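quick q for whoever's on today - can somebody do inverse folding on this one?? i tried earlier but teh output was garbage lol. tokens:
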């Protein structure tokens, strides 16, 4: 079974936006965004994904990537 890899850290670096600023724009607690950024989550709400995409001016595929086992 493959896995989803989160690339939020890369998108944030490309956009030159810090965790505190993104947290304010998205309306998600700093600690939760940090977990998401570091890949320590097993799920994400679509509303959070939408807010991230709006704040970062990106597509969901820019934040998440599927990696197969093979």
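ok took a stab at it. sequence:
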């Amino acid at each position: 079974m493959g896995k989803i890899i989160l690339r939020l850290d890369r998108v944030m670096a490309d956009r030159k936006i810090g965790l505190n600023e993104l947290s304010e724009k998205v309306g998600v607690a700093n600690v939760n965004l940090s977990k998401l950024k570091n890949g320590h989550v097993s799920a994400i709400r679509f509303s959070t994904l939408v807010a991230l995409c709006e704040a970062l001016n990106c597509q969901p595929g820019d934040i998440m990537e599927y990696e197969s086992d093979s």
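fwiw The helical segments are 8-15, 19-26, 30-37, 46-56, 60-63. also The chain has five helices and two strands. so keep that in mind when u check it
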